[in-house]
Amino acid sequence: MVVPVEREAGNAFKVTISPEVDSGARQFLQAIASPTKEQRLQNGRYAHKLSAASIGGAGGYAQSASGWDTQTLLGTLALGGLGVVLW
Q: Does 61 have pLDDT greater than 80?
């Protein structure tokens, strides 16, 4: 999208945006509320990547821990659970 910029008096500039252009927030919310078939496919692929990363992160987090304590257990379970939910 090209936005026209006009120079005004002094060091001021004026930007005019036509009213028929949708804002980025509106497009983002519409993609969530009523996604197209392609957007649903891409959202599914993204969730699958996040799932795989969470499960891999849980394994790496558990392996790198020097000892098992409550924080390590909860972190591993949280990452693994997130991976299962996003699968």
A: yes
Beta bridge partners of 6: 14
Q: Are 58 and 80 in contact (CB under 8 A)?
A: yes
| Distance (Å, whole) CA 62 – CA 59 | 5
DSSP state of 69: -
How many Cβ atoms sit within 10 Å of the Cβ of residue 5?
9
Query: 5 with 14: CB under 8 angstroms?
Result: yes
7/23 Cα distance (integer angstroms)? 24
In sequence order, the β-bridge partners of residue 13 are: 7
CB 35 within 8 Å of CB 63: no
Give backbone dihedrals phi and psi of 5, rounded to 5 degrees, phi first: -120, 130
Quote the pTM value. 0.60
Domain ranges of the chain: 5-86
